[in-house]
Amino acid sequence: MKPFFSLFLLLLLLLASCGKSTKTYTIGVSQCVGGPWREKVNMEMRSAQHLYNADVKLIIRDADNDTELQGRQIDSLIRMGVDLLVVSPNENGSLTQVLRHVEAKGIPVVFFDREINTIKYHASIGGDNVVAGKAMGDYAVHLARQTVKPANRKPVVVELTGEMKNSPDKERFLGFSSVMKRHPEITYRHITTEWSYEGSYQTLKEMLAKGDEMDIVFCHSDHAAMGARQAVEEAHREKEIKILGIDGLPGKDEGLEAVQKGILACTYIYPTHGEAIVELALKILEGKPYPKHTYPAGQVVSPDNVDGVILGTQATQQQAQHLITIQDKLESYLGLYQLQRNLLMVALVTILLLIISILLIWRAVQQIRKAKRQIEQSNQEQTLFYTNARHQLRTPLTLIDGPLKELRDHGHLKDKNKELVDILYRNVQQLHDIIFGVLNFKNENTRQITDVSVQNVMKDSDVQNGIKNMLLKTDHDELATVLIVDDNKDMRQYLHTLLSANYYVLEADDGQSGLKLARESVPDIIVSDVMMPVMDGLQFCQHIKEDDITSHIPVLLLTARSTEEQFIEGYEHGADAYITKPFSAMMLTSRIQNLLQIRIKLHEKIRLQTELEKKNNDKNILELSTPDRRFMDAFKETITKNMGNSHLKMEDLGAELGMSRVQLYRKVKALTGLTPKDLLRQIRLQQSYYLLQHTDKTINEIAYEIGFGTPGYYSSCFKKQYGKYPTEVRK
């Protein structure tokens, strides 16, 4: 065993050394809505996936401003097994229940850009909206003083916000309005609308149509500010009314370009910093210190500094895009490397397995040689035993037979005594014949078994042929197999003598060994005693009926118990028939034959099972027990699943059903009267008949689909089954 242990240890060490890899965390990101600003955040997060000691796999979901959809997306991320969740909630409080479920799972939560105060979370990150509101308020005051000079009235500043449901709405309003309150020389108006281009456009258009005065309009996003600008342009007041926004994104038609072109008077770069989100998440996952709140700094962008800001953001954005490209190529190279490493591992493992297989084969050869020597020694001992037994039995029989014969022939016996001596003499002669007949038979049988055993040890093919001849019986004139289970050796011998002329007989001396033998040999019928050690006949019968391999086998119980309650108990344990002791040989053989005939009749019903079920739509037409029904359903399901496999073997079917090839053969043959191979062919042909009638597929396509290797062989089998060729059905 030492060489095997060393090889196994080497294999484990090899696998362990090749299995080491950098830790990869999965981070789920739930964005409340899309848009350019959040796309920039996503790009920055992706560019930072491989910047740190641990790699990150990002799964990003966009709820498109739909709170219910965001809740479902978060549930989906949980099921995918994310290690940490980054959430930008759509509405404050609406996701409370979902996020509490995340908390219960022990998944860390990081709020980004927005928060929900009723939920416990690990950290938050995002621009300070109060600071952003104050910065834009200060610029609005500056702009009012420098450029707005209305006659006979105060400058009017209008703030357009969303519906004040989310933290950005509330906090930006808080910052902006706090500045306005410090400047009574300015008229300040707060209008709630939708936080969108269309919402700002419609609101401002209606105000201008009514003649409302305004000099500066502050919107909570550049996108909304563009809608306000559209309304001002349509009113031809773009020179009088200044529009302010927030986001400050680079790119065509975004906030920075709008300031550069004079469309917006000012914007505020609301920080994205997606790489900071990834860094914060890794600190939490790796147990490192991290801040509870992180506020990246923003910046006011006006016509005075917009050119420099655009140059800087363009360079930063280009670098991030290049980094993503490099990472994509690196992942491709790493994938190729991993594939090559796996192939090398497979090759090494295959070599080790081949070495182990060679060693196992060598060891098996040694064991076969040892078994051969043991068999030869056992045969010699058996021959010596029968020789001694013949000698030892001949002496007492001669001493009994001789005096008895002398007394019978020459004794002066009365009629009654002479009759008794005659009876005794006849039985002694019978005993003499039986003993010497058994000894001679055993001696001859021993020599035959010795020859066969030695050949079987030398050739595995001979073992397989022997099993086929004993168990896989396909001839209609073959003998059915009877398993006798009884702890009384004389009873087993009597039953064996009674049945061996018409049946192939197997024997077991208790229920436990009988159960094992039944699973291995799958007999056609079982005759069992009730009162037995280890496992009694009732328990044995129940195990037989509950086992999918043996559930179909009829069980005939023999017992001296004859009350009605005892009969009922036997039937409740699954017995098919009951015979009380003492019994006549004719009664026993007739009952066995009757049970086997019932099983044969059941074959005919099962052969028509598919047609009857399709016609009547009834899954319980056949009176099968639950284990037999379960087995037949599983067998048909396995055939249906593998029907297109032209190389399907019975060993493969048996493996999927948890049976050996022999057990599968015996089980199917006992239930249907067909071999598994014949039943497979029949089901394939039935499926092809349906396809011919209900599809436009060619005959060749159908033949391959149902698992025939060649269309010609399929047509031949179809003709044999239905009496006509597939082309005739198609017509």
TrEMBL record:
Membrane spanning residue stretches: 343-365
Response regulatory domain mapped to chain residues: 481-596
Record flagged with keyword Transmembrane: yes
Modified sites of kind 4-aspartylphosphate: D529
Keyword annotations from UniProtKB, A to Z: Membrane, Phosphoprotein, Signal, Transcription, Transcription regulation, Transmembrane, Transmembrane helix
Pfam family, one: HisKA
Catalytic activity: ATP + protein L-histidine = ADP + protein N-phospho-L-histidine
EC number: 2.7.13.3
Residue ranges of domain HTH araC/xylS-type in the record: 633-731
Signal peptide positions (record): 1-22
The protein, known as: histidine kinase
Taxonomic path: Bacteria, Pseudomonadati, Bacteroidota, Bacteroidia, Bacteroidales
